[in-house]
Amino acid sequence: MSDPNAQRTPAPDDGDLAALIASLIKDLRFGAVEITVHEGRVVQVERKEKYRFDKR
C-alpha cells in the first residue's frame, strides 16, 4: 500500500544522493535515516527524528 501523500521528486545522481543523506544526518541528534532500495536503486529516503526531554 503506498502513501497517497508521499512526495515524489526526480531521482538524484550518486553525488546528490550522498549530499542529501549527509544533510539529513548532519543535525540529527536522536532518530534514524532509513534508505529504501529496490533492484539496486535507492527509491526512498526517510528521516525520523525524536525529541527527548529531561525527566523531572
The H-and-E topology, N to C, reads as HEE
Number of strands: 2
> Which geometry do the CA atoms define?
extended
**Within the largest sheet, what's the order of strands?**
1-2
Distance between the termini: 41 Å
Helix-residue proportion: 10-25%
- Helix and strand composition category: alpha+beta
Low-confidence stretches: none
What's the short version?
With 56 residues, the chain is α+β, with helices and mostly antiparallel strands. It contains 1 helix and 2 strands, in the order H-E-E. It has one helix spanning 14-26, and strands spanning 31-38, 41-49.
How would you characterize the overall build of this protein?
There is one protein chain. The longest helix is centred in the middle third of the chain and has 13 residues, at 14-26. The protein has one helix and two strands; from the N terminus they run αββ. The protein is extended, with a radius of gyration of 14 Å. The protein has one helix at 14-26; strands at 31-38, 41-49. The chain has a domain at 14-49. The protein is of the alpha+beta class and 56 residues long.
